[in-house]
Write a structure and sequence with these properties.
single chain, about 300 residues, mainly alpha, 2 domains, 14 helices, about 0% strand, disordered C terminus
Length: about 300
Amino acid sequence: MTAIGIKTARRAAQSGQGRAKPRIGAHAFLVVLVIYFLLPLWWLIVASTKDAHGLFSGSGGALWFDKTFALFDNLGLLFTYNGGIYLRWLGNSLLYALSGGVGATALAILAGYGFAKFAFPGRRLSLALLLGSVMVPLTALVIPTFAMLSQAGMTNTIWAVILPSLLNPFGVYLMMVYATDAIPDELLDAARVDGAGEFRTFLTVTLPLLRPAAVTVLLLSVVGTWNNYFLPLAVLSSDNLFPVTVGLGLWDGLANSASGTGTTSLWSLIVLGSLVSIVPLIVAFLSLQRYWRGGLAVGSLK
């Protein structure tokens, strides 16, 4: 091997060693982040298997299982406590999340596609209002929303939760940005030249190309509605209409109250109810992740 070849090999080895250290540091940082995010979930799973005694003074510690495995007993008590009110809350959350998520996604698709591909009077002003509304926290709108619904006589109804959930400014903005790049104008012009109307062009050309973004907006809307706490708390007063978030908050208040009865067992129900409440979200992510595909418009034009 020549002297030049030896020097080149040494430089390559040194550069490889130099790159290995940052990779080890990056991987270690990622491992720390994974542990940080999974640790609360692990505690929730472990705590759900403990009875009332093991939850506070068990021998296994906070992050490990107790001698008594009470998961199935806790499940039976959770679904039968107070006449099975938890199942009612879970069904309410499914109703609010699906209705609000599907409705918000449909409106976001239509509005985002309109902003991206059509020119109309007031477009710039409407777009400015849209971008401004994205910056407004949803919690700041709870009191004005309650006042409007109260004047309309819609408080303490399912519509008080569903109708505000249909508005998703960030979803509209996301659809607009995605539609601008994912749907070429030439493709729409080709469909119009072939004699397709706007409605048919939207259904046959635009909608399939918007599927990845639509699924993303759907998941964000469903998760946002499912985890919404302040709006249902403000507009609902009947226990039978509460979603699972507000229902668990009600149990938490009873467990913390000095005058509450059965407070010790309520803590076990709250922990297990929190675990059960995230199962539908996990199922939604796992079932819809296969629709997140990019490059659907690749090859449509030459």
